[in-house]
Amino acid sequence: MSRGLLALGVCVAVVIAGCGGGDDSTSTSSTTSEATTAGTAQPSKQNTPPQGQNQGKPADKGSSAKEESSEKQGGASQQTNSSESHSQRVKVPPISSAPTAGSRSPAPGVKTVEGADNSVQEYGVESGESERREAAIALQAYLNARAEEDWGTACSLLARKPMEQLERLQAAAARQGQKLDGCPQTMALLREGEAQSEEQARITEVLSFRGGGDISGDPSYLIYLAPPGSTLFSMPMYSEGGAWKVGLARAAELPVG
Predict the structure, then answer these.
(1) Averaged pLDDT score across all residues of the chain
(2) N or C: which end of the chain has fewer CB within 10 A?
(3) Residue 5 has what pLDDT?
């Protein structure tokens, strides 16, 4: 692998895996700073949705007019339908029934650290049980696709935000004389620099889904336990095209000790 491509691989890993502890509100005009901030996708308390904000529920799938409106929209609909079909074949991961919809307090079992950054655990309000289940299925489908190196499916389950980051990285690679043929090849490049087993793709238990909907364009956060051990992870999720989409290439580990 050339030095330029290796450097690009490191950049991909940093950007779309998230750096942890960042804040989406602190962006700069620099392409690097913008990419890192967007990849981190950490919540700011200033963006907390108000109590009672409606959940972002999947749209009605019965409308065929939207699918026929244009070639571009038809392609997007086909991608969404493919993602939903894949999600339907995924075994639903264990999901806690303890959270109370609309609660602002961290869900039962979700650790916090006194005086530390608990903005994910306390973000917005707790979503309802159906939204928690739908987001969990979408994330598990994505994790399965990554573990199986099914990059086409993994890309179809990514939200617009990480896809835009991948497109910027592809453009940067082109300027260095390296051609990356879209999202699947870029995701495969990222995989070369990481070790992830199928065991690490298994969700042990979903504990919480924080948000209150995607009306403002902000993400909701799925909080769950997964190997190694019972590590607490969070994944930003976006409601797009009637389905929940994954907001980072890799989940972020919550620093709870």
Answers:
(1) 73
(2) C
(3) 47
Say how far apart CA 135 and CA 237 lie, in whole Å.
7
Does residue 228 have a cis bond before it (omega within 30 degrees)? yes
> Do 193 and 9 contact (CB within 8 A), yes or no?
yes
Q: How far is CA 36 from the centre of its chain?
A: 15
**Torsion angle defined by CA atoms of residues 49, 43, 18 and 98, in that order, rounded to the nearest 10 degrees:** -70
Predicted pLDDT of residue 108? 96
Question: In this structure, what are the phi and psi dihedrals at residue 238, rounded to the nearest 5 degrees?
Answer: -120, 140
Q: Evaluate whether 142 touches 246 at the Cβ level (below 8 Å).
A: yes
The answer to whether 165 touches 183, Cβ cutoff 8 Å, is no
Q: Is the pTM of this model over 0.90?
A: no
Neighbours of 29 (CB within 10 A): 6
Separation between Cα atoms, residue 87 and residue 142, nearest integer Å: 8
For the chain, give every domain's residue range: 3-50+73-253
User: How many other CB atoms sit within 10 Å of the CB of residue 233?
Assistant: 18
**DSSP-derived 3-state class of residue 66:** helix
CA gap 210, 146 in Å, rounded: 24
The two tokens of residue 168 are 């910027």
231 pairs with which residues across the strands? 226
Which residues is 245 bridged to in the sheet? 238
